[in-house]
Design a protein that fits this description.
Length: about 220
């Protein structure tokens, strides 16, 4: 738990807390030149104390935040977030992309890794390097990059939770989606399909002898 923040869970908890890693205040010159807004998604098991703790940590880092109950209430629960986003859209901005189209594939990957993930850079496997050369020879190097990466970490290691420091993103393969118009960079052990959580919601859905469905959130 971060210094100065008291954990609201009596007796502590067994979960890995992302607040163990201090939140770094973001400057106004973010990678895209846009003002950030943090959406704090509430799930049914989240307590008011936990929500307040995350709000405190977020605001202490100089980041505006809004709670969202969209998971439980749908569109109605996300109205405050939508209003906050709409208000930000009316503010002046200096939008820019993280990289220029004419950069090489590897330079684009490095720009994403350093500017967005705060990594030291990228490391391409021999296979990925060969694919980068092939894609460049075929005229695809101007396409934007889509990163296929774990959602649990800024790194490509799902066990290195949150926003670690001093890491390199490993790109093991590159695939071109010519119709859609982008290159997919596969990092770590990520799979592009299927996109399921550790415990799919379908495992909790059931139908009793009277035809009543349960487990639908």
């Amino acid at each position: 738990m971060r210094k100065g923040l008291k954990c609201p869970i009596l007796g502590g908890c067994q979960r890995t807390c992302p607040l163990d890693t201090p939140l770094t205040p973001l400057p106004l010159d973010t990678p895209y030149g846009l003002q950030p807004l943090v959406a704090i998604n509430r799930f049914t098991a989240d307590t008011e104390a936990e929500m307040a703790l995350v709000e405190e940590a977020t605001r202490a880092a100089g980041l505006p935040c809004v709670r969202s109950d969209g998971w439980a209430e749908g569109g109605k629960g996300a109205q405050d977030l939508a209003r906050a986003v709409a208000a930000l859209c009316e503010e002046p901005s200096a939008f820019t992309y993280a990289y220029e189209d004419e950069l090489s594939i590897e330079d684009k990957l490095n720009a994403i890794a350093k500017k967005v993930y705060h990594a030291d850079g990228v490391s391409l496997t021999d296979a990925a390097k060969k694919q980068a050369r092939q894609l460049t020879a075929l005229g695809f190097s101007d396409l934007p990059i889509c990163m296929a990466k774990t959602q649990y970490s800024f790194s490509d290691n799902p066990k290195l939770l949150g926003a670690p420091n001093g890491f390199t993103v490993t790109v093991r393969a590159l695939r071109v989606c010519a119709g859609a118009g982008f290159i997919v960079a596969l990092t770590g052990d990520i799979m592009t399909m299927p996109g399921l959580p550790k415990v799919p919601a379908a495992e909790k859905i059931d139908v009793d002898e009277n035809g009543v469905i349960s487990g639908m959130f």
